[in-house]
Write a structure and sequence with these properties.
Number of helices: 12
Number of domains: 3
CATH class of the largest domain: Alpha Beta
Largest sheet: 9 strands, mixed
CATH architecture of the largest domain: 3-Layer(aba) Sandwich
CATH superfamily of the largest domain: Periplasmic binding protein-like II
Radius of gyration: 34 Å
Shape: rod-shaped
Length: 310
């Protein structure tokens, strides 16, 4: 039995090209080789196989009976090799390039956030990717997804912007907190008395959640406005302000006694977190792959996250 090597496959491709072109001379351009080189290659192939494959002379080029059989077998072999290569490419397919991901700030302490697990799952696929992470406010994230600077963003987006698609992935719970220097820390109140003292306190709010937070506290206006969680925490720890913080983020200061949560059952906000993508744009493979992993890792009931979905 003949053992095929890489050189044999190369020679069989030369043979198939010669037959397709109808002769040695006609195959020179297709093979980018001179006639003498082609003749040497055919002689080598015939020696390897031990049969005469073709006749050429004044009567022209023609295959021998063995040449016809070898040509048919060659076409089957080359087709099988091509199919194998295509299947192998699918199996080993790697996503490459740069993925630009935006995230709202201070989600690192949230056990419900699917981003860490999604990132681990995505990277473990062996993709040759460069991950660029941008932390920003909801408005900044939406703007960057719209203009293409970000492929996707994850956060709480109270107002949905035209041109973007929002898919729910999880939710975040916020509570009202005071610092240890605030009067309500040492003398906590309840019910109507708590609302009265809240009304007499300085309230700091997140700009993108101002209406929700003030409505829940029954307060007309805020004394301070911030656009990120860290700034909010700084003002609350000062003792000069009350404000809503994500419970998971405030837990570190509650544990040390630097913060106290007030009326945890009554004064709480639940904020849906969405993944945002640009509407009407064909997503690159790198984005599709990340969204598949995000869908698998998020608590969205197993629903697929598809870019472009309303």
């Amino acid at each position: 039995m003949i053992q095929l090597h890489d050189v044999d496959l190369k020679l069989l491709r030369v043979f198939a090209t010669i037959v397709k072109c109808g002769g040695f001379s006609a195959a020179q351009a297709a093979l980018n080789s001179g006639q003498s080189t082609i003749s040497e290659q055919m002689a080598h192939l015939e020696a390897r196989l031990g049969v005469k494959l073709c006749q050429r002379g004044r009567s022209g080029f023609r295959l021998t009976e063995q040449g016809v059989a070898v040509h048919e077998a060659t076409l089957r072999l080359l087709a099988a090799v091509e199919n194998f290569c295509m299947d192998a490419d699918v199996l080993k397919q790697q996503i490459s390039g740069r993925l630009n991901l935006g995230i709202i700030d201070s989600t690192i302490t949230d056990p419900d956030s699917p981003i860490p697990q999604t990132t681990q799952r995505f990277v473990s696929r062996g993709h040759d990717v460069h991950l660029n992470v941008y932390i920003g406010s909801p408005a900044e994230l939406e703007e960057r997804v719209l203009d293409g600077r970000l492929h996707l963003a994850v956060g709480h987006f109270p107002i949905h912007v035209s041109g973007l698609c929002y898919s729910r992935i999880y939710q975040e719970v916020s509570g009202l907190f005071c610092g240890r220097r605030h009067p309500l820390d040492s003398h906590p109140a309840e019910g109507a008395e708590l609302l009265r003292q809240i009304g007499n306190s300085r309230i700091v709010v997140r700009g993108y959640m101002q209406d929700q937070e003030l409505d829940l506290l029954r307060v007309d206006k805020a004394a301070a406005t911030v656009d990120n969680i860290e700034a909010l925490a700084i003002l609350i720890i000062s003792g000069a302000y009350l404000g809503f913080l994500p419970v998971h983020f405030a837990a570190q200061w509650v544990k040390t006694g630097d913060m106290r949560q007030l009326a945890a059952t009554e004064l709480r906000l639940i904020s849906p977190f969405d993944v945002v993508t640009r509407r009407g744009v064909t997503p690159p493979p790198i984005l599709r792959a990340f969204l598949e992993d995000l869908s698998a890792c998020s608590r969205n009931g197993g629903h697929s996250i598809s870019p472009g979905r309303p």
